[in-house]
Amino acid sequence: xxxxxxxxxxxxxxxxxxxxxxxxxxxxxxxxxxxxxxxxxxxxxxxxxxxxxxxxxxxxxxxxxxxxxxxxxxxxxxxxxxxxxxxxxxxxxxxxxxxxxxxxxxxxxxxxxxxxxxxxxxxxxxxxxxxxxxxxxxxxxxxxxxxxxxxxxxxxxxxxxxxxxxxxxxxxxxxxxxx
Length: 179
Prior knowledge:
Layout: E1 2-8, H1 21-28, E2 35-41, E3 53-54, E4 60-66, H2 70-79, E5 80-81, E6 87-94, H3 103-110, E7 124-131, E8 140-145, E9 153-159, E10 162-167
Parallel strand pairs: 1-2, 2-4, 3-5, 4-6, 6-7, 7-9, 8-10
Helix pairs in contact: 2-3
């Protein structure tokens, strides 16, 4: 089963924060989702939910965050675990500079806060950073990879950013399965 959701919160820029708890509840009640694609635009504030769930059926995840902030991504991944996801396609995008520099922390919001525990079976990662403002080319993105022990495929794309790479401190190699 494929589930695609696109949420544009442009209307909420000056209004109350939307309630995303119902989305989490819906996902918990949908045990047959194999491919989940989730796009959020202009969500700046975190949301809270009492529900923590593990979406065991999801095998492929596409996540696109445009003109958001780090907080909603952290909120989402603090309440949902994807224990069987083998493939993640993550796009972090911004239109404005310097407000768009939130994308520097977007990867960490999805992966690092849980030390990659949300994705124990991850084999393929496609990461794309997009800034539609040419001034972003002066910004540095520092990508730190957690210890993805089984990652076999890694694709990185950067539009208008200077990129620096690093690895989380660990006892062994950062990406041992990449050859």
